[in-house]
Each structure stands twice: as C-alpha cells, then as structure tokens.
Amino acid sequence: MIQVRARLVVGAVTALATALPAQRGAVCALTPPRAPADTWPMDARRDPVEMILHNARIYTLQWGEPRWNGDPAPSAPFANGRWQPDATAIALGGQRIVAVGSDSAVLALRTAGTVVRDLRGATVLPGLVDAHTHVAELGASLARVDLVGARSPAEAMARVARAARTIPPGTWVLGQGWDEGAWADTLLTARMLSARFPRHPVYLRGLHGFGGWANAMALARAGIRRETPDPTGGVIDRDASGAPSGRVRNRAVKLLDDAIPAPTRAQAESHWLLGLRALANAGYTTVHEAGVDQAHLDALRALASRCALPIRVYAMVSTRDSAAVREWVARGPDSSGAGGATIRAAKAYYDGALGSRGARLFAEYADLPGHLGVAGAAYGFDSAAVASMMRSGFQVGIHAIGDAGNQEVLDFIRDVQRTTPRAATRRDRIEHAQVMAPASITSRRDGALIASMQPVHAVEDAPWVTQRIGPLRAKGAYAWRTLRQHGFALALGSDLPGSGFGIGYGLHAATTRTDSLGRPAGGWFPEERLRIEEAIRGYTTWAQRAAFVETRRGMIAPGYDADLTVLDGDPFDSTTTLMRLAPRLTIVGGRVVFDGARNARDARSRR
Ligand SMILES: [Zn+2]
User: Fold this and answer.
1) Ligand 1 is a single-atom ion; what residues have CB below 5 A from it?
2) Which label site among 55, 167, 361, 459 has the fewest CB atoms less than 10 Å from its CB?
3) Is 452 helix (H, G, I), strand (E, B) or coil?
4) How many whole angstroms from 393 Cα to the centroid of ligand 1?
C-alpha cells in the first residue's frame, strides 16, 4: 500500500525553502497555513522527493486510538499479541512527508536529486515530543564548567582555568559537579580559588546542589560577609576568625545562586541551543518548555527568526514573570510556528512539590501531622494574571501536585472556561497531576483536559510517596490508567533537567512502573501502567494534540510535517529492552538534525 498526496501550495513551499540560508540542522521558516489535507489533489509528480528512507520498521500511528484500557483499536497492526510495522519506506520533500508505504512503491518516486538512505531495519516513529521540559535550564547547566568526576580540588581548578581563559574579567565563571559526598571533608576555600582566579567571580556548585564553593569576589557579590547569619536550613562555613571560608552548605547555596546575574541575550541564546541540541541528539523533534521568562522568550524568537533552532519549541509563558504576562496578554498567542517557535500557552504554578511536602493535600501529610502543604496565592499563584492569559487566547498549563491542589486547579480552570468560552482554552493542561482524589478524577468525563505527566517521576518518587501520603492516597498517585479511563487526555514528558530524558527510560517507566533497575519487582501500583502504544502516543500523537498540531504532526502520513525519530530498536517489539533504546536519526521538517551514524564515523576518523 502506498499513500501519496501532493500539495496545492507546493510551488510556494519550495520557493520559500530554497530562499532560506542552507543552514543544516536548523528548523527553518515553516510553511504558511495550508489547505485541509482532504482537498489536496493526488499528484505525486508535483512533489520534490528530496529524501527516501527505506528498509525500516515504520509505525505510522495512522490507525485508530487505543481504548481507555489500552487495548489496540481493531484497525491497529496488532495481531496475536504482537505488533507489526505498517510501512517500510518514507519519502520526504518540501519539509513534509510525501509518501509512506512499501520499499518498492516509495523507491519508485526517486528522482536524480533524491538522497536515499537504507535504514537497515531501524525503527521509525513520528517525531518524539517531550511535553514538559526546562531546556534553557539544561542548557545553562551545560554551559557551566563540568566538574563531574574531578578527583581533587586541583583537578577541578584546572578545568575551571581552561574555561576562565575565554571569559572576560569581572564576569562570573560558573562550574558544577564536584561531589558533596566524596568531598564532605575536603578543604575547599575561597583563598585557593582567589589565588588562581583573582579577576573573576568564581562559583562552583556541587553535584547535587547541596554545596557551593566560591572565591572572594563571588562571596562579595553575593553579600556573604563575616556578619551574614546562616540562613534557615543552611550553613556558611567559617574560618577560625569567623569569616566565611568559601564553602556553603544546603540552603546557603541559594545566597550564591541568587547573586548570578540574569543571562545576557547571547547567553540566553546559547542556553537554548545547548539544551535543544542535547534534545535533538536524544531523538526529540519538539519540546514543550514549561515556563519561559521574557528574556528567554526574546532569545527564542531571535533564534527562530534566524532559523537557528535545531528542533521545535512550544513555549509556555511563565506567569511568574509579570512583564511577560503584560506583554503577551497585549500581543496574544503566536501560533504560527515560524522558525520552529510557538508561543501560545502560559505556565503557572499552583502548589509545591511532594518531596519537600509543599504539595497541597486535603488531609495532613502522613509523615508530618497537621501539615497540608502550600498552594494558591500563598504559593505565588496569581489567579488574575493566569485568567487574563487564558482570556487572551492562551492555553494554560498549571503545575498541580497534591490532591487539593489538583481539585482547586480543576475548579479554577472550569470557572475561567465558563466565563470565557473561547475555543483556545479548551485544551488546558494540568502539569504533573500527581496525586488526585477519586472524586476529582471522575468529575471530568469530557476529555477536555490534558494531564501532562512524567512517567519517570512515578518511578523515582515511588520509594517515598507512600510515606508522605499513606497507601490510600498513593493509589490515586501518577494514576495514568485511571485518568485515561475517566476521559483525561495524556501528554508525556520528562521534566528535565531534574530527571533523565532518554526516550527508552520514559517508555520503560510508563510501561513497567519500575525504575531504571527494575525496582520494585512487578511495578509500583502496576494497574496504572500504560501499554507500549499508549506510552509512544504520549510522546507523539497525544503530545502534539496538547499543542494543537495533531493534524500536521504526530503521525507519519502524506502531507504531515517531516518530523521523524529513528531508533536502533523497536519499542513495539516486546523482546526489546526499552532502557537500551538509542536514537539513530532525528529529522525535523525534513532536515537531519542528529545523525548517529555520521557522529560515529566522525568519532572514528578523529582517532
Ligand atoms: Zn517542570
């Protein structure tokens, strides 16, 4: 079987694509809004076939949605308990998928200029989406001097010295990764750092964020002096005379963190690029960035206008940044996706986290009597600002963790939707939706809300969640299956950089409810596991739906954007070890933005 459709707008698309700088590895100006697919004539001759991928195991996800219990649709390529790929070749051109089908049918579309790649049995999925990220934060951490594995303060300082050579005097030199545990009793002084780096403020964070090591200039800029008291929950190490010695512990780290100036435009752009390249290399074609301040929105738009983004970004404006709220309420959503950037959602934070007992619960914490967590205005949730973004046409994604937090967010969204019946508000999202009361889950049956959830959170939190909330409430925690049963749509993500974002880890956690080492045996509340198709849809079809683009991304179908992820193993095959899945090729809008084979060749030739 083969499906081929040409585009009415093909001439315009081609002209646009060729007029742009031939910058490999970036998402370039995307095409203008197009006619509905059904009106396109069947005319393969008019499509430029730029690339053909063949000899692949292709899962198009064109078949029907799985039932709420995970059973595949009758139209799914699933028989006798086994999945089968539903195509072996794809033709790409003009940033879109031109055809998908068998090798012989698709290879027949080859022209003189077509690049043909034999994928040798690799698996192709619609381009992966991480539906909850903090990529700019990941990029900022990648921009710091990497001290992981440094065996001594001298080795750490040698690494810092290499970076400091390229940083103008007076500008902060940041590092991260010395081991607080292994170096608990190692002497780390401001004097050591100041002697080596007298002209830069130098601040080196520990691996786990519980320790900081700074020189005199950094301590001065952070206002850490002899008379500075230890903050609650933190310690400023001091010498015999009582002066700060250069090392801080626990909450005192924040004193130094807060002293780091906001990034310049160039720094913000480099954070985006470092982070997005890491995601491209991990097989992702789109991220939903959960909370972006105005400085990073400006940097994102500048990168998009230069066609410099390696993958697509669906940015959620942070409602914690009042300047950003003012600007975007006035401007309204930018849904064009031009250059790969879309700004049509707002991110708000309703309650704290479960680990720190900040999540808002109806009844007290099981391990802290009388304590209910913190939420709403007390947690900085500005309901007027969030409602104004929703009324301006923005989708909202609200961080909610505890059962009371989730119920109050459901109520808030319902109230705003009732008074503002704009279509754009109908796919509002709850970010995390971690612990939900049964009544909250069953009260919504219309499928209008999206639960944006992180499989890896469930398996990383499992060891202590029951202590926090007790076994009864733990049953409604990370309740993917129950939420599907009651009409919530899912979108899956990692919440990087706090958690690992490898797709194999995400799929493994979603389908087993065990951590990367398979614990606990049998899975944590295994009845809430997802089936493999649901997990993959969570990172593709359903995540694209959460960003309103399911009619052009999330499936491999003619006319769809050519966003593809090629993996070295087949996640649909139950014998595959999901944790070991690795990306081979990432393609965004028809451009190869990660090529594992090329990288391996380059590495060999460098040896
Ligand atoms: Zn987050």
Assistant:
1) 290, 495
2) 55
3) strand
4) 22
DSSP E strands, 441-561: 450-453, 489-492
The residue-averaged pLDDT of 241-256 equals 94
Question: What's the CATH number where 356 sits?
Answer: 3.20.20.140
For residue 331, give its domain range: 265-553
CA of 134 to the centre of ligand 1 (A): 6
Q: How far is Cα 153 from Cα 263, in angstroms, rounded to an integer?
A: 27
Ligand 1 centroid to residue 495 C-alpha, Å: 5
- Where do the H-state alpha helices sit in 528-595? 532-538, 541-546
pLDDT of residue 41: 33
**Model pLDDT, residue 87:** 97
Nearest to 52 by CA among 97, 1, 6, 3: 97
Cβ atoms within 10 A of the Cβ of 265, count? 12
Q: CB pairs under 8 A, 24+ apart, for 248-255? A: 248/211, 248/212, 248/214, 248/224, 249/210, 249/211, 249/212, 250/210, 252/212, 253/205, 253/206, 253/209, 253/210, 253/211, 253/212, 255/222, 255/223, 255/224, 255/228, 255/231
Q: Are residues 121 and 144 in the same domain?
A: no
- Residues 466, 490, single domain; the answer is yes
Tokens 């994928």 sit on residue: 119
Q: Are residues 106 and 247 both part of a single domain?
A: no
- Return the pLDDT at 188: 95
Has residue 568 been placed in a domain?
no
What is the distance between the alpha carbons of residues 329 and 391, in angstroms, rounded to a whole number?
Answer: 8
Judge if 388 and 533 occupy the same domain.
Answer: yes
Q: Are residues 206 and 157 in the same domain?
A: yes
Tell me how far the alpha carbon of residue 36 lies from the centroid of ligand 1, in angstroms.
Answer: 34
Per-residue pLDDT at 583 exceeds 50 = yes
**Span 35-78, pLDDT tens digits:** 333 333 334 445 589 999 999 999 999 999 999 999 999 999 99
- 569 in any annotated domain: no
Same domain, 274 and 218: no
Q: How many angstroms does the Cα of residue 498 sit away from the middle of ligand 1?
A: 8
pTM of the model: 0.88
Residue 577, in any domain of the structure: no
138 Cα to the center of ligand 1, angstroms: 12
d(CA 495, CA 455) in angstroms, rounded, equals 10
Q: What is the CATH number of the domain that holds 117?
A: 2.30.40.10
Confidence of residue 424 (pLDDT cuts 50, 70, 90): low
| Side chain identity, residue 288 | H
CA 314 to centroid of ligand 1, rounded, Å: 14
> 256: how many CB neighbours lie within 10 A of its CB?
23
Residue 570: inside a domain: no
State what percent of residues in the chain have pLDDT above 90: 81
Please tell me whether residues 72 and 88 are part of one structural domain: yes
